[in-house]
Amino acid sequence: MKATNSPSPTWQARVDALRANAYRIPTDAPEADGTFAWSATTLITVEVNAGGQTGLGYTYSDASIVALIRGTLSAAVLTHDVLDIRAISQRMQRQVRNLGRAGIAATAISAIDCALWDVKAKLLGVPLAALLGMQREAVPVYGSGGFTTYDDQRMREQLAGWVEQDGCRWVKIKIGSDPAKDRARVQGARDAIGDAGLFVDANGAFTPQLALHYARQFADHQVAWFEEPVLSDDLGGLRFVREHAPAGMEIAAGEYGYTLDDFRHLLCAGAVDVLQADLTRCGGVTDFLQAADLCGAFHVPLSAHCAPALHLHAACAVPRLRHQEWFHDHVRIESMLFDGAPRPCNGMISPDLSRTGCGLELRERDAARYLVG
Prior knowledge:
globular, alpha/beta, 14 strands, 2 domains, Enolase-like, domain 1, 13 helices
């Protein structure tokens, strides 16, 4: 029998350009949580060209990853077919094997991956949510801020605004900088929001025993969610707090999950009631979808962490989604610098399905003043 050659692909869109920039945007007031303080947030944008279209992705990380994207990771992306995003993702992860896949390398990969999905959806002429397969047309959000640097008046005004103006069903405050004041701050938050759901986030500030002590105090104010009561790497400590927390108080963690193994370890340990995943850290849309699959396998709900404009289309596509974090810093930056950033209506955000891709466009003139690399 005469051998025949395999047919050539009839359509390809190879990545022919990749660009990255860093922007440092000052906060509108000093901010802190239980373990860290900051006065600016660094946004890293990535653009990829393929098939005559441009895709946009971004992450919140350190300006140092710009060189990693332009150099080391570009070799895994340029000239490759944008239809094969999973293959590109695997190449990028192998490319940083000797550097370490977690941390800043993961954020760099995440930004590129989001840009690839954006350009793929644009090439196909559809919104990204439609390409991924929509489970819902709108995503519930919870207001997130209440930094420990805020005085009581500023905190109450912020929380009340999310509930009364944006219709949020839940809000979250930071705790742990000065634990002696936290019970009063939680009481102030409860007074400001009435019957809305109240969450607290310690960012790993406590030991397991101390976390449990404060959890029992917060239960008096109907706190329904305690995020990172201990360091997220302390799986035993998270499990201890979860097993002994007051009835009705969920334990959440996962925002520092950089690989699927990080999520698997949290779930296998029984460490969380709700898993958080952040596609600007965990490998972009590709691995966010896989994190959602893990949640399905373990029957655990998923909450999308920060960067609401970038998460929106993926959040519409995954099952078991509980909600999306409406984080003050990122909401402010996204509304300042991106056309197409969503706004809440009755506590929900919805994608603009008249736009292809992720529906976002960087306003470069507005961003230029913040450019640092």
